[in-house]
Design a protein that fits this description.
Length: about 325
């Protein structure tokens, strides 16, 4: 059932998902709005309660599936949850704009599209365009699929919420009552890009309560604001720690093994290194490119292909585990 849910979700996301309703973001926003307008605010503000607040949506779905105990319903819900968790149509649109701009030789449009990707993904580490896409692939596919295999729908929902909160709170000085996320907006803008005209996506500003952002009482230097961000950073760091190294092992197996394995061994027992740095360093070692190729079309295409090979490898590995009875 796990393998079937994975295959269905990945195929549907690739072929049919085109709207915001199939992304995790609006559902995370809805949970934040519900929290802001209810007693859940106290739970989110409590020193220990904020951990439970993050786990709560996933726990409720997992409990509901357990109580109903219906295999067909579980398959449907798991597939839908995974489909929403891996949904990244916004980034796929921006990447398509980037490729179209590169093909027609519009360096400025390509630069703007990639800068939008970097801004929206809140990448912590300056790197090449290709490595930025590798990190996005990890955050939206590899890590989500890993937690689905380990914890089912609960793992996907919790990780998607952590990911959303991370992208929200890393903006720095945002408004007290709202968070502004810029999205490439309309199909018309995308169509303009595909026909060769210079396109810029319309900015859509969405107001949402920011539970983990600073409030008037919690300035960036206050202990309360720091504690909130520390709780989120701690949970996300450990949620990414093992998947990042497992994903790195996949890079070694589908790429330049000796280079990638040497890079991975340096991080394997390092519990403090940035997981983004781990993924990017191992990916660069697995697919070495000359300096002059960085940030060009060769860089992005080779890194995207490396990530695809890695995902196919783990899908095959999952199939083997399923056939041998290790996975249900």
């Amino acid at each position: 059932m796990t393998l079937i849910s994975m295959l269905l979700a990945l195929i549907i996301e690739r072929l049919a998902v085109r709207s915001d309703a199939w992304q995790a973001r609006p559902y995370c926003q809805a949970y934040l709005k519900l929290t802001a307008g209810s007693g859940l605010t106290k739970l989110a503000e409590h020193q220990l309660g904020r951990y439970l607040w993050i786990l709560l949506p996933g726990l409720l779905v997992a409990l509901l599936l357990h109580l109903l105990d219906n295999r067909l319903l579980t398959l449907v819900v798991n597939t839908l949850v995974l489909l929403v968790g891996i949904g990244c149509w916004h980034y796929r649109q921006l990447y398509k704009q980037y490729l179209n701009a590169q093909e027609r030789g519009d360096e400025e449009a390509a630069y703007l599209a990639m800068q939008q990707i970097r801004h929206d993904s809140r990448s912590d580490i300056d790197s090449s365009n290709g490595l930025t896409l590798v990190w996005l692939n990890f955050r939206y596919y590899a890590a989500v699929v890993f937690w689905f295999l380990v914890l089912g729908a609960f793992g996907v929902i919790t990780y998607a919420l952590l990911r959303h909160l991370n992208e929200q709170t890393q903006t720095g000085a945002e408004p007290v009552a709202a968070s502004s996320d810029t999205f490439a907006a309309t199909d018309d803008a995308l169509a303009e890009t595909e026909t060769g005209a210079a396109s810029t996506a319309d900015a859509v500003t969405v107001d949402e309560p920011v539970v983990f952002a600073e409030t008037a009482a919690d300035t960036p230097d206050s202990s309360a604001a720091v504690a909130k961000k520390d709780a989120l950073s701690c949970m996300l760091h450990w949620a990414d720690w093992f998947p990042a190294r497992l994903f790195g092992l996949g890079f070694a197996l589908v790429g330049h093994f000796s280079r990638a394995s040497n890079a991975l061994l340096g991080y394997f027992l390092d519990f403090t290194a940035s997981n983004e740095q781990v993924v990017k360093d191992v990916a660069r070692a697995a697919e070495p490119l000359p300096e002059e190729a960085l940030n060009g079309i060769e860089d992005t295409s080779s890194m995207v292909q490396l990530s695809k090979r890695n995902m196919l490898f783990f899908l095959a590995f999952t199939a083997i585990l399923t056939l041998t009875g290790w996975l249900g």
